[in-house]
């Protein structure tokens, strides 16, 4: 048996454990006993299969070809796509021609029009305090890594078209622009141009994971019934999965040996509600069909099934709301996000303490200012003559107020400086993927609400027993959090919760 382990597992005594701060842990939003899970399903694209940024570059280049042929400016061909331009979870505002980031409460917190960022004043003027109603067709969330090129193309074309015409696009033009981009990006996925390029040069576009087979083997050999459920077609699935898994682990000559059934061209999320019979393509391979047929074959349903995917809407939100299945979200960006946070861990801890200091300083300042007003009022009382005691009190309080004001200003300034220092390790335009300043980002909040577990890659399951009892961290209200920050040195390394929600303890592989 292949007993190699993910490279960032550390050895501790006789057993191997994940480092406490390892971005390769599985994090827990809702308790899940893996021992009670009978069947585990996996999505393929960006879940079992990690793509390299070259795939987004290719998808963008192919989409540009279609857009130019539909009459969009030739100059678009000169724009080089930057995979780091955006982050997942951005939202296109089709009514205004903007790309925005929202926080957990659906308030727009950052916005760009074309290649220009909004100032805070401009952003507040357009989006003021109303939370966005995301169900309206004005808003288009970019919630998969496949959709990342769309936000970049939208920004580029808004800038190019407005520069060409010298006027702002109207609402009909900004809506039509998005529809055309969507159509062209879809086309490169549908017309086989993207997939044929990937098939022709797998190493260029697909990042193999040497621990994937071991993770699947551990689950399967413990009695879990594994299935693959993907929107990709049979031919493409065969190519990708063969490249990833054939002969990776002794005893598994073909990738199909890991899975009890394989469902291709599934058409998620409608798959979860469809009743149609699947087409049998082989002994265990099914085309289209619906969830009821999958559950019938498995002989289990509801919360005995765990589904692992990367799409917050198609794999997690709709699954949770229509099937009762448990869910795990794969967030490949998590590793880079946690490594960036780790780089500035001292600054994050210092900022948390400064924020608590600020609360106490502002309370003390308000109290001193109130006392000062009382003393001044007493001095103005006609019945009060020259009162040396009041004069001394007033002078002392004035000095105290001045001191507190100075310390409040210095603490605020320090918090701003620390925030800038922390932020510089994240996307320069959009900041962290999962956070927006002191709140969760829209994407981070959806992940917290809908995914039972989340992790950076499927092979991270190799570090846990197939019977692992995943427990979420204890919820902390603000008063409890303040006590932790003030009194404990092991304050959460993400500035979020005391153990960051990591499942503990990981176990050694057998
Ligand atoms: Mg996917």
Briefly summarize what is shown.
By secondary structure, the chain is an alpha/beta fold.
List keywords for this structure.
510 residues, alpha/beta, Rossmann fold, 3 domains, nine-stranded mixed β-sheet, five-stranded antiparallel β-sheet, 15 helices, disordered C terminus, binds magnesium ion
Could you explain the architecture of this structure?
The protein contains 15 helices and 22 strands. By secondary structure, it is α/β, with parallel strands linked by helices. The protein has 3 domains: 21-51 and 206-338, 3-Layer(aba) Sandwich (Rossmann fold); 53-200, no CATH class; 345-423. The longest helix is centred in the last third of the chain and has 36 residues, at 345-380.
Task: Specify the structural class.
Answer: alpha/beta
Q: Compute the number of structural domains.
A: 3
Number of strands: 22
CATH topology of the largest domain: Rossmann fold
Shape: globular
Sheet of most strands:
9 strands, mixed
Count of alpha and pi helical runs: 15
Range of helix content: 40-55%
| Span of the ends, CA to CA | 10 Å
Under the CATH scheme, which class of the largest domain?
Alpha Beta
Bound molecules: magnesium ion
Q: Which sequence of strands runs across the widest sheet?
A: 3-21-18-17-5-13-14-16-15
CATH architecture field of the largest domain: 3-Layer(aba) Sandwich
Average predicted local confidence, pLDDT:
89
- The CATH homologous superfamily of the largest domain is called HAD superfamily/HAD-like
Poorly predicted ranges (pLDDT <50, ≥5 residues)?
1-16, 489-501, 504-510
Strand content: 5-15%
Rounded to an integer, what's the Rg over CA atoms? 27 Å
């Amino acid at each position: 048996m292949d007993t190699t382990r993910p490279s960032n597992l550390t050895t501790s005594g006789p057993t191997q454990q994940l480092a406490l701060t390892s971005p390769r842990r599985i994090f827990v939003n809702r308790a899940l006993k893996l021992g009670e899970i009978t069947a585990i399903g996996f999505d393929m694209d960006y879940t079992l299969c990690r793509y390299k940024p070259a795939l987004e570059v290719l998808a963008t280049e192919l989409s540009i070809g279609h857009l130019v042929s539909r009459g969009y400016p030739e100059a678009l061909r000169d724009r080089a796509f930057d995979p780091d331009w955006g982050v997942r979870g951005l939202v296109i505002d089709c009514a205004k021609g903007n790309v925005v980031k929202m926080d957990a409460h659906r308030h727009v917190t950052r916005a760009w029009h074309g290649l220009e960022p909004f100032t805070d004043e401009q952003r507040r003027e357009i989006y003021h305090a109303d939370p966005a109603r995301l169900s309206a067709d004005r808003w288009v969330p970019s919630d998969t890594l496949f959709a990342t090129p769309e936000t970049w193309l939208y920004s580029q074309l808004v800038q190019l078209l407005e520069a060409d015409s010298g006027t702002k696009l109207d609402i009909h033009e900004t809506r039509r622009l998005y529809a055309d981009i969507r159509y062209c990006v879809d086309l490169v996925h549908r017309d086989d141009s993207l997939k044929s390029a990937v098939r022709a040069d797998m190493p260029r576009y697909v990042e193999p994971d040497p621990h994937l087979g071991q993770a699947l083997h551990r689950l399967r050999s413990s009695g879990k019934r594994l299935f693959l459920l993907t929107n990709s077609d049979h031919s493409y699935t065969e190519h990708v999965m063969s490249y990833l898994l054939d002969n990776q682990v002794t005893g598994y000559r073909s990738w199909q040996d890991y899975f009890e059934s394989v469902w291709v061209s599934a058409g998620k999320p409608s798959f979860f509600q469809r009743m149609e019979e699947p087409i049998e393509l082989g002994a265990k391979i099914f085309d289209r069909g619906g969830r009821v047929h999958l559950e019938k074959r498995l002989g289990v349903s509801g919360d005995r099934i765990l589904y692992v995917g990367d799409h917050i809407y198609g794999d997690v939100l709709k699954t949770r709301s229509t099937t009762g299945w448990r869910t795990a979200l794969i967030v490949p960006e998590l590793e880079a996000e946690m490594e960036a946070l780790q780089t500035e861990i001292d600054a994050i801890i210092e900022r948390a303490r400064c924020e608590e200091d600020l609360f106490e300083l502002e309370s003390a300042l308000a109290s001193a200012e109130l006392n000062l007003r009382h003393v001044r009022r007493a001095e103005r009382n006609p019945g009060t003559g020259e009162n040396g005691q009041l004069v001394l009190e007033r002078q002392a309080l004035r000095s105290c107020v001045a001191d507190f004001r100075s310390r409040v200003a210095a603490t605020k300034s320090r918090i701003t400086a620390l925030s800038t220092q922390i932020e510089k390790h994240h996307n320069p335009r959009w900041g962290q993927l999962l956070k927006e300043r002191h709140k969760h980002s829209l994407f981070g909040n959806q992940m917290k609400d809908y995914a039972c577990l989340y992790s950076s890659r499927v092979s991270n399951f190799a570090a846990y027993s197939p019977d692992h009892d995943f427990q979420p961290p204890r919820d902390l209200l603000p008063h409890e959090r303040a006590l932790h920050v003030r009194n404990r040195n092991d304050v959460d390394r993400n500035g979020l919760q005391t153990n960051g929600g990591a499942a503990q303890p990981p176990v050694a592989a057998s």
